[in-house]
Automatic annotation (TrEMBL):
Record domain VIP1 N-terminal: where: 66-154
Enzyme class name: transferase
Family the UniProt entry places it in: Belongs to the histidine acid phosphatase family. VIP1 subfamily.
Function: Bifunctional inositol kinase that acts in concert with the IP6K kinases to synthesize the diphosphate group-containing inositol pyrophosphates diphosphoinositol pentakisphosphate, PP-InsP5, and bis-diphosphoinositol tetrakisphosphate, (PP)2-InsP4. PP-InsP5 and (PP)2-InsP4, also respectively called InsP7 and InsP8, may regulate a variety of cellular processes, including apoptosis, vesicle trafficking, cytoskeletal dynamics, and exocytosis. Phosphorylates inositol hexakisphosphate (InsP6).
UniProt cross-references to PANTHER family, sorted A to Z: DIPHOSPHOINOSITOL PENTAKISPHOSPHATE KINASE (PTHR12750), INOSITOL HEXAKISPHOSPHATE AND DIPHOSPHOINOSITOL-PENTAKISPHOSPHATE KINASE (PTHR12750:SF9)
InterPro entries per UniProt: His_Pase_VIP1, VIP1_N
Protein name (record): Inositol hexakisphosphate and diphosphoinositol-pentakisphosphate kinase
Catalytic activity as recorded in UniProt: 1D-myo-inositol hexakisphosphate + ATP = 1-diphospho-1D-myo-inositol 2,3,4,5,6-pentakisphosphate + ADP; 5-diphospho-1D-myo-inositol 1,2,3,4,6-pentakisphosphate + ATP + H(+) = 1,5-bis(diphospho)-1D-myo-inositol 2,3,4,6-tetrakisphosphate + ADP
Swiss-Prot/TrEMBL keywords: ATP-binding, Cytoplasm, Kinase, Nucleotide-binding, Phosphoprotein, Transferase
Pfam name, any one: PPIP5K2_N
Subcellular location, record wording: Cytoplasm, Cytoskeleton
EC number: 2.7.4.24
Main location: cytoplasm
Amino acid sequence: MMSKLYKLAALLGDADVNWDDNHLRVVSRLDDSDIERLQLPSAIYSPHGTTNLRPLEPRSTRQLGKIGVCAMEDKALSKSNQAIFHHLKANNNIEIILFGDDMLLNQPIEAWPTCDFLIAFHSDGFPLDKAISYTQLRSPIPCNDLLMQKLLFDRRLCLQILDLLEIRTPKRLEVNRDGGPSIDVNMAQHVYKSVGLKIESSGYGSKPQTLPAVSLINDGNTLLVNGRELHKPFVEKPVNAEDHNIYIYYPTTPLGGGGGRRLFRRIGSKCSEFDPEIAIPRCITEDGTVNSYVYEPLLAADCGQDVKAYTVGASYCLAVTRQSPAVTGIVYRNANGKEIRQVTELTREETDTAAKISVTFGQALCGFDIVRNRGKSYVIDVNGWTSVKDQPAFYGECANVLQQMMIARREQDKLYSTR
C-alpha cells in the first residue's frame, strides 16, 4: 500500500495524497502560474433550447458536493486531468474522490464510495461493466454516459452515429467477418432510446452465414468488397477502436510506388513507419479469420496537419493541429521535449460537429479527430474523455463548463423529483 502512495505522490508532484475510508483522496497543489488563462476561441451551440454559459456565481453559492473520479490512476492522475480537478475544487466547495486502481479492480461495487456526481471514463484495464453496475446501484449524477462509451469501442457503430448526425466522414467499405458489432439487447435499446439509432447486427457478434466477397483488381490497386470499389491509397482500420495498428496502402504505378505505412501508438518520437512489403490488405491475407476492418480513402491533410478537437458539453471546444502521422511518422517536439501542437480556430461547421458529438454520445468531455482536406472537414475518429496536454487555458474553461453542467443537471433532477 505504501509503495502505491509514493508512486501517486511522485506523479502528483507536491499534491497531498492520503487514504481514508478505503479510497484515495487527492488534493492538487498547482500554482496559479501553471494554469494561466488565455483568451481562446469559444463557440456557443444551443441544442434543444440550451443557452450560453452563465457567469460564475459567488463561491459560497456553488457547492456541488462530492465528485467521484472513476478512472484508472495513470489517466486520472495525469497533469492535465489534475489541473481540471484543481479548478473544480477552486470554483466550488467540493470534495473530489479518486476511487483508485485497487478499489476499481479488487473491491466489490458495494464498497466503492458514494458521490453526488461521477466522472468516469475508460482506458486500458478499466472495468467498464463494473462501473456501469455501480451507477445502477448508487445512482450518482453522471458526467459521462458509460453505456455510450461502449459504443465507442467499435468504429462501425461510431460511424453509424456520425452518419445519423449528418457529420461528414470519409466514404468507407466494411469487411465484416464477425457478424457485425457485438452488443447485447440492453445496449441496443439504450442507443435507440438515446439517439434513435436501431443497430443492425447479425447475431450480435456471431460469425455471419455469408462472408463478404473481397478481392484486389486493377493490378492490385483497387479493393473490391461485394462489388464496391475503393482505390489506393486507402486506410485500413481494425473495427476495434482500441486497436491502433492502422495500415495505409499506396498504389503501384509504372514509375514505381507501392508499399504502405504502419501507424501505431507513439514510441519515442515515432508514430508510423513505411514498409515496402505492404501491398495486400489484411482482409485478404487473413482469410479464414473473424478479423473485420473498415477501409477509407487516404485524405491528404491540408498543410500535412491533422486536427485534434476537445469538446466540453455543447458550449466549448479547443482544437489543436499536429503533424499528420500519415506524412512522415516523426513526432516533432519543442525545446522542452513536448509534441508541437498549435491552437487552431474551428469553423462554424466544425463547432456544430463538436457540440453534436458531445451531446449525442453523452460525454461531458470528448475528443475527436478531424482531417481537413481541400477546405472540407472530415471526422475520422471519436475518442471519449481525452487528456489535453500543455494547454493551460483549457483546464479552467473545462472546469467552468463542467461545473455549470453539473449545476444544471442537479437542478433538473430536483425539478423532476418534485413533480
